[in-house]
Amino acid sequence: MSRMVNDSDKFELLIAHAIPDIAVNVLTLISVTVVLVNMNWQLTLLSMVPIPFILISLRLFARYVRPAFRERQQELGELNAILNDNISGIREIKTFTRERIETRRIDGRVDRYRDSLLHALKMMATFQPFIQFTSALGTIILIYFGGKLAFDQVLTVADLVGFFLYLELFYQPLHHLSGAWEQIQEALASADRVTELLDEVPEVDDAENAVALPVPIKGGITLQDVRFGYIPEETVLDNVSLDIAPQSTVALVGPTGVGKTTLAGLIPRFYDVDEGRICIDGIDVRRLALDDLRAQISIVLQDVFLFHGTVLDNILFGRADATQEEVIAAAQVANAHDFIQQLPQGYDTVIGERGVKLSGGQKQRLSIARAVLKDAPILILDEATSSVDTETERLIQQALDRLMQGKTTLVIAHRLSTIRSADQIVVLGNGGIAERGNHDELMAQRGIYWHLNRVQSQDPTLVVERAGDADGPMTAHIRS
Asked: What is the pTM of this model?
């Protein structure tokens, strides 16, 4: 954000101020030089004695001040980041009474930004007096040699006075150019940071000669010997193979950290597999254009992100060209229409940044309405019913059941009661598929899925025994 806003703002110094100043002063310098040469070419050469020193100072100034400006902009970015964190996490700061600690952190960042700014300003304060000093040195040289020429009657006093007047016009553009040079270095330092951002290569991008996904698609998904890790040393998924039939529902279950969300994120190519391949209707997703691929996939996440704007704007995020009637129909399918009508301005109610004016269940139903409006043939549900109360879960589950009709659905769930009717349940563990089958088949295997069901259903064999005396610790034992 700092690079996009603060650094790019520095280009205004270059485009609107520095470049016009340079153009005007260069023309002035050339014109005055022509006049001085016509008056006396020897004195003109003497007046240029300071020029090499000025050029050297410009070079040295650029070498040292641009990194100083870059450091200043970097410190400004860090300050913006910590301010954003503190504003976004103000409730957590208040909850854990960290106001003083966070204030000291911000003060520390402000001090670092101030110091970096002063460092750059000190260099600028050194540069300008040096330019003025070298210009004065040129004037002193001309006073000496011009006086000798006038004394020897080689040059008239009137011509010498005129030469001095023009000489002031000669050095004045140099002073202005030095000021423009400061602006140029400041803009270039910011340009370096913006260029780094623009030069970032996307981790996932369209392949050369990417093909379009034939529409309408059937929605079959195939994973063949998929291996993936966020870093080379740690594999999250290893040798995973899975077939998901068109318009079927597959549930991914397993302990936290086994790669359920990672697997789901590989299908729309949020990441690319390290080995193996993922196909939709037999076509490797890496061969497909990203826009075509993701247009066929809807995702409903546990952590819903709503944008600052109206309810209508957020639902239209699913399909921007939808009509008002289609938006209302999508909201009705998502069980969201009733609570939207109760808002102060209905669908035109501004819900605040990240939907802060709505409850968790309401935000979840708006995200479902977005997915309904998009109506993509492939649907990914990642913990879509977690962290809500029982009544809200019922409404959300009803909306999801309607949303899933006729779609290839991949469901990630910790509440196993919500996926018992899935066509296939895949249990992940140790980087691969530990079990697969429908609910009845997995329960009969008495494996991981059976154990997870027992724990969630509070099976009587889950016994809590008290160890020690009445005030002693509680120890839980799971009996086979």
From this structure: 0.71
